[in-house]
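$ fold --in a.seq
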Amino acid sequence: MIAIIDYDAGNIKSVEKAVDYLGYEVVLTRDKEVIKKADKLILPGVGAFGDSMEKLHKYGLCEVITEEVKAGKPILGICLGLQVLFEESEESPGVKGLGLLKGKIVKLPVKEGFKIPHMGWNDITVVKNGKLFEGIDKPYVYFVHSYYLKCEEEDAVAATTDYTALIHAAVEKDNIFATQFHPEKSGDIGLKILDNYCRD
């Protein structure tokens, strides 16, 4: 069973639909016992870093997520779900993320000819032969964000893209996986990425 963590963040339902479409048993939950019983976790999200951390704390989810991931359970963070896996964000100074990976979230620099937020399709460069991009050639995926990841652990970076800065677009380290882009909005390639994560 795959548990999608429900903390009132945007875009959770479309992730649930995509995983269900792929044929996996999926549950949308904030019940700690269900999260503990799940085989894998997905932490989606669209919104602000500070609000999201506040809600994760409010529902008592920070502790159970941290415990389960540290015990080896796989987790996939999507968009804001990627960002909160890290230590902090310029969007919400003073607010600590889950700190499961080292790095911080910074604002996309302004550059002539580029719109912020970064909304739309971009190609990404796969820099690590891991699980997420297995069997995928030249991924083209959908982004919606104004802040981006600067990962401190180079060996954790799975893919990059360029949009006013070099963006760490996906990470993969041990049982932690995350994408800044939205696989659930990225057509067949996005479904393949989700399937790669969900399958054993």
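$ fold --in b.seq
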Amino acid sequence: MSFQDASVIITGGSKGIGLSIAKVFARSTNRRLVLIARKLEDLQNARKECLAEGARGVEILAADVTDSKALDALDFASLNPGILINNAGSFLFKPLEETSGEEYIKQFGVNALGAFNLTSKILPVFKNQERSLIVNICSQASLKGYGHSGAYTMSKHALLGYTRSLRKELTGTGIAVTAINLGQTYSTSWEGVDVDPNELIDPEDVGKIILSLSELSPRSVAEEILLMPEGGETTPM
């Protein structure tokens, strides 16, 4: 299967930023979508929304990307993947001195280990293809420290470090690797927070950027992108 026809795998694809990315691809391409998240009911609702947006087909996989053994049971080659978007994430707003080791491990697992696990499973498939693309959704917190979200910041630093190293190892293989360092982006995690959504990044803009990356010639790769709200950071941050 050619890169233009290959499917798009999106983790955390049942809601928030991941679902917004999926909808952009549903409207703008004929690619099949593969949505991965933990809750089957949320995935079923997301599939309906993507099909309504024009998706050619939507596969849903209820799986925890932090569980490497569970991923072993999935046949990724049969999905004909060409694009992997490691979007699944979790945000803990808590000072470091109040953060438990268990809370840190959970942040690291979802925000860094999950991307490592899934990418490791899919890389053998990508290496047999002429071209493919891996996009890791990192954060502005991958680039500098933030108070009251230290565990999240540490985990996102780890994800960016992994992305940079992976890019180095895959240079010249036809597998492009991109980190998108997101500023504050509107998603379901902001529900209940006193903030104007118009002050945050439109999550569909993230999808539009990834769509553009998929349309680059195989001679080019955007290694890192920083996307910020036009008005700058807002509270809480």
